[in-house]
Structure formats: structure tokens, C-alpha cells
Design a protein that fits this description.
six-stranded mixed beta sheet; alpha+beta; 19 helices
């Protein structure tokens, strides 16, 4: 055996122990009972969100980092991953990183941040993500404040502000936070406590609901804060509430799991007397923004330009029922409406089976059916749809993003080729296109926002698609609720967007498979489309997906249908 290396950890876990943990995690979330656990991860129905969760659990349990691109190689199995984790755990060293709470100088906005900043007009403060949780009774207010301070210190995106001088591109910077002294003084407006201990049980919901609605307008991306923690103290014997509101520029849906896991671990560690507790953040968000900006002018990124230029030439405009001088100006939260479709429960099982047969993600098939519906409506052989992806591809630099909070969600233009062919052949073209997306799609935003002027201008000359698609699956990143925050609270949290907020697409399709039932939400603007038009389009999509599963659900995958892309 090799001699020990300096810094080797004699208490590192055995490969067998690591493998058992990995198989237990995967078995809890994605694997079918008959799955062959020795098969490559990508053959087990694991998508990249599952891999992100696995990377996060590996770092939390074993103190080592594994990149998403390492997990996504075709030959990666649980056995090989266990060997990799055990090897790194044995040679674990303390990384040279910036201290918690450190500030970061101004850097460019990431592509989704900059696009959103340009799209919104007027007050940009009221555009949030927000959740309200129950808290366990008897929560210690001082310990909780200290846990929040360490949480905010450990995640740079929770401290960002946007600097936007006239006639210059906006930039983001991160304020420092003090790690000594009273936590309330260090946090300032980030943390507030509302005493509701004197209220009767029957009066609690109204008081909480009113305060939540007010808090939706309390954020300011220009001056700060971009996050608010509001703890409702109901006394020592009753569960309280915790409202967390984060500005969209600083957060995405995957970030919730990171935030909640860290808050739980920090509070329970402090409660147990562990004064050294801190967050184990990955690559801080401003460092990712800087890396993405630099990546845009590398030969590797510029080699993608031809691909994206070809994609954005694809038709992407839908007809309107109501004319408007500027459709996007009237496409606001005030005019938004929703049509919901629910599919039969047995369809989800058929969808999963067909996806496995064609080495695809279930969302790929739902997206393909959307393309079929749009192509028929527009009478086009190919259509372009903006697809939302989680954006944590780790394809840029030496990035580790599984435990980083921030807005990584990226919108990627996708060409759906519906030229004549069998159902399997048309599906294979879609699956192949998604699998071939360069770098998982993050390069498109980087090139269009930070690329050389010739490339950037070519990509931004084409208007965005009028239609977007987001497959969120079965609650794509389930909230890790444990003892400190045991559940989501029942009270309403108010409107997370202002009425004047500009919607980025005219029609947004959001698909979920909660409770193993496929549902599709169709968001549209009543100023531009009638409900009957959207219902008709949704019916086309329903028929297209059903016909697709009838045609390919039990067949053999067509040539070229390899690899899977997630939403």
C-alpha cells in the first residue's frame, strides 16, 4: 500500500460505507425497486438535479467536494463514486477560501440577472421568492439570531446589492458582515422578530398574513437588503413562524434546500454548544459571475457561437388575440392568468417508462409534445422554445455549486425539429438536440451578454421566444424540513411580485409530477390572449403527448436517442 500522504485523514470512511450511503440516498429519491445498482448513474433515471443533491450530501457527510460534471460522466457508478469520495476524504485538507462574511468588490451581473434588470421597469424591489415555515416551540431567539448571522455570512448572494450608474452596465457587489458583537446589530434589517405571544390562537393567522404581505415590499436590490428573515414568536409553548423573503436576483429554487439545510445545522450545532459551526459554501456567487464573464471570451465558449446562432433563427413568435403596440409592456403580473391541465395518473408511469426506453428525461417528452402542439398551431416545421434549466452545470472553471445560493436558473433557446418522420424519429431529434446542448446551455447567456460584440450582437438580434417551458418534476428539490422548521405554514404570504412586474414570456408552461400525477400550468396574459386560445393550445399539447406515448411508449429507442437533458 502507498505510504500516507501529509494531511491524510486516518478517520476517513471506508469505500463500503460510502457506497452504502450513496445507494441509500439514491434509493430514497430516484431508483425503482428493480434497479440494478451496479449500472451507471445516468442509466438509473438520475438527472442532474439528483446529482446536485448527491454532491451536496457527499460534502455534508464526508467533507469532500465532487463536481457535477464528474458525476455526469457516462461511466460513473455508485461503486466508482464511492471510491472517489473515499479517496478524497482520506486526503482531505482545509481549502484556502475567503473568510465567512467577507465582502466582494463589484463584478458583472450574471446573464439572467442582467436580462431581468433590463426587462423590469420602475420599482425593482418587489420581485421575490418567499416561504413561510412553522418553527418548533421554545426556539431560543439569541441562538436563532446567531444562526442567521452565520448563514448570511456564509452565503454571499444573501448580501449582494446592484450598483447601476447612469449609462453604464449594472454590477453587483457583496457587503461584509461582522462576525463578532450582537448578531442583531450585525444583521440590521435582515432579521426581525415579531412578538405574537399575547395573541389568541384564533387571531394568529390574520396577524401573520398581514405582516407577510407587508414584507413582500421590504427588499431593495439597490441599497439592500435582498433577504429578510421575520420570526414570529408565539411564546414558549406554541409553534411560531418564520418568513424568509429573498429577492429573485439573489436566489433560485435549488437554493432553498441549501439555505434550509444550513440553517438547521447551524442552529442545532449552536444549541449543542458548538461555537465553531459555519456554512460550507461552494464557489461564492460573485466568483461564479466573474468566472462566467471571463468564460464568454474563451475559445471554448466562442466555439459554441455557431450552434446558438443557428438555434435563434428558428421561428418563435405566436399569434395574438389582442393587438398591442408593445406586447411585452402589457404582459405584466396584473394581466396574468392561468389554465391548469391534469393528466390521468397512469400517464405518469407511461411517461417514465417511455423516457427510460428512449434514454431521455420525462421532461424531454413533455417538451417534445409542446413542440408538436406549437408546430401545428404555427404551421412551422420547427419551433423555438425557451427552456428553463437549473444552470449549475459546473462547466465553467473549477466551480463547486451544489452548496452555493444564488440565481443560477438560466433560460436556454431550444430548437424543436418537427419535420416529417415517425413519432420515434421526431422524438429522437428532440432528445439528441437536448443532449448536445453545449455546456448544458450556460454558454448561451454568457456569449449573448458578455461575449465579443460581434457574437453578442448576433445572438441578441433575435427576439426571445414567446413561449417558455419548465419541467419541475416531482417537486424537483424537496425542502429539507426537520426539527427547527418542521413544516410549511398554512398562512398566505402575499403577492411575491408587484402588479407592474414584466413577465419574460407571453406563454409559460410549467409541468410538475407531484403525487405521481402530471400537471401542466399555462400562464398567459389576458391583454394578449383569450382563455379559449390557451385552452385550445393546452388540448393540442395533451393530445400530442398522449399520441406520443401511444406511439413510442413500448417501442425501442430510435437511433440517436442517447443521453438525457433535464430542465
Amino acid at each position: 500500500a502507498d505510504a500516507p500522504h501529509p494531511g491524510d485523514d486516518p478517520a476517513a470512511p471506508a469505500v463500503e460505507d460510502v457506497r452504502a450511503r450513496l445507494e441509500a440516498w439514491l434509493g430514497d429519491t430516484v431508483l425503482t425497486p428493480e434497479a440494478d445498482l451496479s449500472a451507471p448513474l445516468l442509466d438509473l433515471g438520475v438527472d442532474s438535479l439528483d446529482l446536485i443533491r448527491t454532491a451536496r450530501r457527499v460534502e455534508a457527510a464526508f467533507g469532500v467536494r465532487v463536481q457535477l460534471r464528474e458525476l455526469a460522466v457516462p461511466a460513473m457508478t455508485t461503486a466508482r463514486l464511492a471510491e472517489l469520495v473515499a479517496e478524497r476524504a482520506a486526503r482531505r485538507r482545509t481549502a484556502d477560501t475567503a473568510p465567512p462574511g467577507a465582502g466582494h468588490g463589484p463584478v458583472a451581473l450574471t446573464p439572467p440577472q442582467e436580462q431581468a434588470w433590463e426587462e423590469q421597469s420602475g420599482d425593482r424591489g418587489h420581485w421575490n421568492q418567499a416561504l413561510l415555515f412553522t418553527t418548533r416551540s421554545g426556539l431560543d431567539g439569541e441562538l436563532f439570531a446567531e444562526a442567521v448571522r452565520r448563514l448570511v455570512a456564509g452565503h454571499a448572494s444573501l448580501r449582494l446589492t446592484v450598483v447601476a450608474p447612469p449609462a453604464r452596465r449594472p454590477r453587483q457587489q457583496v457587503a461584509a458582515v461582522a462576525l463578532d458583537g450582537p448578531p442583531g446589530a450585525a444583521l440590521g434589517p435582515v432579521l426581525d422578530t415579531v412578538d405574537i405571544s399575547e395573541l389568541a390562537d384564533a387571531d394568529l393567522p390574520a396577524a401573520i398574513t398581514l405582516r407577510c404581505a407587508v414584507e413582500q415590499r421590504a427588499l431593495d436590490p439597490g441599497a439592500g437588503p435582498v433577504v429578510r428573515f421575520v420570526r414570529f414568536d408565539a411564546g414558549p409553548t406554541r409553534p411560531g413562524r418564520l418568513l424568509i423573503v429573498v429577492h429573485q436576483l439573489a436566489f433560485d429554487m435549488v437554493s432553498w434546500s441549501v439555505l434550509l439545510e444550513d440553517l438547521e445545522e447551524l442552529y442545532t450545532a449552536l444549541e449543542a454548544g458548538r461555537t465553531d459551526a459555519r456554512c460550507a459554501e461552494g464557489t461564492p456567487y460573485p466568483e461564479w459571475a466573474r468566472a462566467l464573464t471571463e468564460h464568454a471570451r474563451t475559445p471554448e465558449a466562442e466555439a459554441e457561437a455557431e450552434w446558438w446562432t443557428d438555434v435563434v433563427r428558428t421561428p418563435a413568435t405566436v399569434p395574438l388575440d389582442h393587438t398591442a403596440d408593445d406586447p411585452r409592456a402589457v404582459n405584466t403580473a396584473r394581466t396574468a392568468a392561468t389554465h391548469r391541465e391534469e393528466f390521468p395518473p397512469e400517464l405518469t408511469a407511461r411517461l417514465d417508462a417511455a423516457a427510460r426506453a428512449h434514454r431521455a428525461h420525462p421532461g424531454d417528452l413533455v417538451l417534445h409534445a409542446l413542440g408538436e402542439a406549437l408546430a401545428g398551431w404555427l404551421d412551422e416545421p420547427a419551433v423555438r422554445v425557451d427552456v428553463l434549466r437549473h444552470g449549475r452545470e459546473e462547466a465553467v472553471g473549477d466551480s463547486h455549486l451544489a452548496r452555493t445560493t444564488g440565481w443560477f436558473t438560466t433560460t436556454v433557446p431550444v430548437r424543436l425539429d418537427l419535420a416529417p418522420g415517425t413519432a420515434a424519429e421526431r422524438l429522437a431529434r428532440t432528445v439528441g438536440h437536448l443532449a448536445a446542448l453545449p455546456g448544458g446551455g450556460v454558454g448561451f447567456g454568457a456569449l449573448s451578454r458578455h461575449g465579443r460584440p460581434r457574437i453578442s450582437a448576433a445572438l441578441r438580434a433575435a427576439p426571445p421566444s414567446d413561449v417558455s417551458f419548465d419541467f419541475e418534476g416531482d417537486d424537483a428539490d424537496a425542502l429539507p424540513l426537520r426539527t427547527v422548521l418542521p413544516d410549511v405554514a398554512p398562512e398566505p404570504i402575499g403577492d411575491i411580485t408587484a402588479p407592474h412586474w414584466t413577465r419574460p414570456h407571453l406563454i409559460e408552461v410549467i409541468a410538475t409530477t407531484d403525487d405521481d400525477v402530471l400537471r401542466a400550468e399555462w400562464w398567459y396574459s389576458t391583454a394578449l390572449h383569450d382563455g379559449a386560445t390557451v385552452r385550445h393550445l393546452a388540448a393540442r399539447h395533451r393530445a400530442a403527448l398522449t399520441a406520443l406515448l401511444d406511439a413510442v411508449g413500448h417501442g425501442t429507442a430510435a437511433p440517436g436517442a442517447a443521453g438525457a437533458a433535464d430542465s
